[in-house]
Amino acid sequence: MNLFYVLLVLLVVSRAFGEIAERFSQPALVGELIAGITLGAVVAEYPGIFPDLVGLSNNDVYVSITDLGMFFLMLFAGVEMQPHKAFKHSTGALVVAIGGMIIPLGLGVALGWFFLPDSNLRTAQCLFIGTALAITAVPATVRILMDLKQLDTAVGQTIVSAAVFDDILSLLLLAWLTGLIAAGEPPGIVEFAILCGKIALFFGITGVVGLFLFPWGGRFMHHLKAQELEISALLVGAFAFAVLAEMLGLHFIVGAFVAGFYFGRKTIDAESYDQVRNAISAMTFGFLAPIFFASIGQNLSLSALAGAPMFVGILVVVAFFGKVFGAGGAARIFGFSMRDSAAIGVGMSPRGAVELVIAGIALKAGLFDVTATDSPVVNNLFSAVVIMAVVTTVVSPVILQRFFSRVRPSPD
Amino acid sequence: MNLFYVLLVLLVVSRAFGEIAERFSQPALVGELIAGITLGAVVAEYPGIFPDLVGLSNNDVYVSITDLGMFFLMLFAGVEMQPHKAFKHSTGALVVAIGGMIIPLGLGVALGWFFLPDSNLRTAQCLFIGTALAITAVPATVRILMDLKQLDTAVGQTIVSAAVFDDILSLLLLAWLTGLIAAGEPPGIVEFAILCGKIALFFGITGVVGLFLFPWGGRFMHHLKAQELEISALLVGAFAFAVLAEMLGLHFIVGAFVAGFYFGRKTIDAESYDQVRNAISAMTFGFLAPIFFASIGQNLSLSALAGAPMFVGILVVVAFFGKVFGAGGAARIFGFSMRDSAAIGVGMSPRGAVELVIAGIALKAGLFDVTATDSPVVNNLFSAVVIMAVVTTVVSPVILQRFFSRVRPSPD
After folding, report:
1. How far apart are CA A237 and CA A398, in angstroms?
2. N or C: which end of chain B has fewer CB within 10 A?
3. In angstroms, rounded to a whole number, what is the distance separating the alpha carbons of residues A140 and B249?
4. Residue A246 falls inside a structural domain
């Protein structure tokens, strides 16, 4: 890969579209996604003119750079979260997460049952659609809330915490699902308990490290001489948590988020904290995040629209309203106002980042390897889910922006 | 590649060794290089324990990350350089560059003539050794001067400018050399003129863009809405210059350096400038540069020490004193004091970053493909040059630190 050329094109196009989106009073993220979609379409049409941009999504270097983008975004989101506020909103977030998980999951399974032909993989495929609808893309959600300056509000903190819960629950589902695809039958209760144990272990270890080792490390660093040590220390913590998360069956973004979460104004002195925060913000929003979001748009292939248009249409609608009613309804029951509940429902609907990871895992596990079928829905299932992921991620901030522009932000 | 695991190990080890180096009053860079050497040795000894760390230097993702490290280091060096000071020292720098180029080049060719057996590649191999001795590793030099807080002094600015000149001259030599290897005869005067023309074109285009478009872009950005735009703009400029440099036959680090060079306190407002500078410093010295320098150490293979110990010893000695007498002598003639001249000579001697690139290009061009020889020197030439590069890079800051610790820094 021609590294600097690719970075140049992606950064220029994504930031230009982001600026245009802001001119139309939309979050920059929407522009960056559309930048990726446009770039993908142009390169697919004229591959000869842009040989260096063909097949980027399969390029190891490119994937690593977009992974770093996801990592920095989640790290920054964690740094912006304040533990005492997040814990305060954790009950509400858990209710929202469960509502926002069960309704879309049920709807997805039902949708699959209705559209998919009978085969030995049908159950797994239905569960895949359910899982695909049940997740929330935390990095996309975080970025949307930041663009709208709502990350720090009660609604924002609830959405992010609930989205993290949802992702953990989805990863449990996914592990169960890949077991089902691999063995032909769902994993037993013991395997499932082990999985839950691993997740508990992750939060146990990171909790102890975050609450005790981080502050000790912050004080210890005063005795060291090397420059730019604070940001190195935070990155070391975040890399370590990311590695631990992957070892214990979670996605690395959970590790990055948790590391940022435990890094606070009290971990190191206030001045160093602000410097680290500003540096990560600059690297994330000035460099890696626009490229990451453009790369999500690049994955969009409209082939499913031709093969199974009705299924795609219904999938997108169910994806959106499943979260609005599931998460939003749960928020309303928990006691949020009608408007806040609707905002939470819409805010939980983007699937853009994690979805592609999950669809990729299912693809590798062989979920779409159905040779004896001519069903256009099965043949286009992967592409349909990608369309759903990108569309929900574009639509959600556009609608959310209308909610928040009418009310003054209410800091918690 | 297990991205986060590799980044975790490299960052922890390099920063820990860097801190230890500072405890022994040595520049952090020395520790980072030794971290890489140690890591390389440990992994070579116990590959089974660290499977993810084996063969990193051939991994595309790892190479791209270290390339980004080199890029950010040169960008930051450019930002730290001040055009009016650099131009003020440019005559001295040119004299130092020429002295520091011709003497080592001549010594290298002579050394090759003495040690290498006759073959159709002998002339090219001799010139390769000459080129290898003639270059100066700008990124290493910059880092050393920063660690010693000398980048801003007359001596520092002269060293960096001279090192950049040397690299450009070496790239000319290298282009000539690869032409010689490929065609069996040196490129004609026309090809050489084209090459010089391309380099002139690079500096012409970047000069016009840097002097006129950068300040205009800085003013234009006030009308834009997107956040973290200044750092994006600088990165876009640097990526564009890097791509242009590679298109015109220069190394991308020259592009990154020149982009930083034209980016000044007057390009954007002072506050934004400081923020951008701090963010790049944090990313460079807190993340990418330690990994980059450790990766240089990882390349060290001591096999040449067993195969051709005398040649390796002489090569290292000639490499070091060639620059001390060549560049230092030129500085003395130009009018620097004895101590400053010695410092300039020592400061020009690290070969650690660019050398590996040049040796890699020569390797790919087939310079070491001599099948009909049993000469241990030829068989170990690549490894010997790598040893020389790493040793000069470790030794130079250790000696330089002694010069500067005895005198108070004299800001220009």
Report:
1. 35
2. C
3. 40
4. yes
Residues from chain B that touch A235, judged by Cβ atoms under 8 A, are: 7, 11, 286-287
Between B4 and A408, name the one with better pLDDT: B4
CA nearest neighbour of A82 among A152, A7, A3, A173: A152
Say yes or no for a CB contact (<8 Å) between B1 and A64: yes
Mutate to test the interface with A, among B52, B232, B285, B292 (most CBs of A within 10 A): B232
pLDDT of the residue at B325: 93
Cβ atoms of A108 and A322 closer than 8 Å:
yes
CB–CB of A278 and B283 under 8 A? Answer: no
Closest CB from B19, B67, B286 relative to A225: B19
* Residue A325 Cα, gap to closest chain B Cα (Å): 33
Residues of B in contact with A67 (CB under 8 A): 3
User: Which chain B residues in 23-42 lie under 8 Å from chain A, judged by CB atoms?
Assistant: 23, 28
Nearest to A4 among B1, B28, B243 (CB): B243
In a domain, B58, yes or no: no
Q: Inter-axis angle of helices B154-183 and B252-262, to 10 degrees? A: 150
Q: Are B159 and B145 in contact (CB under 8 A)?
A: yes
Query: Looking at residues A230-248, what average pLDDT do you find?
Result: 93
Is the CB of B64 less than 8 angstroms away from the CB of A236? Answer: no
How many angstroms separate the CA of residue A158 from the nearest CA in chain B?
25
Per residue in A16-62, pLDDT tens?
A: 999 998 888 778 888 898 999 899 989 988 989 888 888 888 899 99
Higher pLDDT, A172 or A333: A333
Neighbours of A220 (CB within 10 A): 11
The answer as to whether B152 is a domain residue is yes
Q: Is A370 helix (H, G, I), strand (E, B) or coil?
A: coil
**CB contact burial B332-361 (16+ within 10 A = b; e otherwise):** bebebeeebbbbbbbbbbbbbbbbbbbbeb
Q: Which tokens hold the place of A267?
A: 């971990």
For residue A361, the number of C-alpha atoms closer than 13 Å in the C-beta half-sphere is 21
Evaluate whether B92 touches B336 at the Cβ level (below 8 Å): yes
Side-chain half-sphere exposure of A167, counting CA atoms within 13 A: 32
Ranges of residues in chain B with a pLDDT under 70 are 182-186, 353, 365, 369-373, 405-412
- Beta carbons of B282 and A274 less than 8 angstroms apart: no
**B285–A225 C-beta distance less than 8 A:** no
Q: Which of A74-83, A99-108, A171-180, B376-385 has the highest mean pLDDT?
A: A99-108
Show which of residues 5-24 on chain A sit within 8 Å of chain B, judged by CB atoms.
Answer: 5, 7-8, 11-12, 15, 18-19, 22-23
**Host domain of residue A339:** 83-136+151-279+311-367
Whether B348 contacts B160, CB under 8 Å = no
Of the ranges A120-129, A364-373, B104-113, B270-279, the best mean pLDDT one: B104-113
Number of domains in chain A: 1
Q: Rounded to whole angstroms, how far apart are CA atoms B85 and B154? A: 8
Q: Indicate the burial class of B63 (C-beta count within 10 angstroms; 0-12, 13-18, 19 or more).
A: middle
Residue A268 is part of a domain; what is its CATH number?
A: 1.20.1530.20
E strand or H helix at A256: helix A252-262
The pLDDT of residue A175 is 72
Which residues, at least 6 apart from A393, have a Cβ–Cβ distance to it below 8 Å?
A: A29, A33, A137, A140, A296, A350, A351, A352, A353
Residue A392 lies in a domain: no
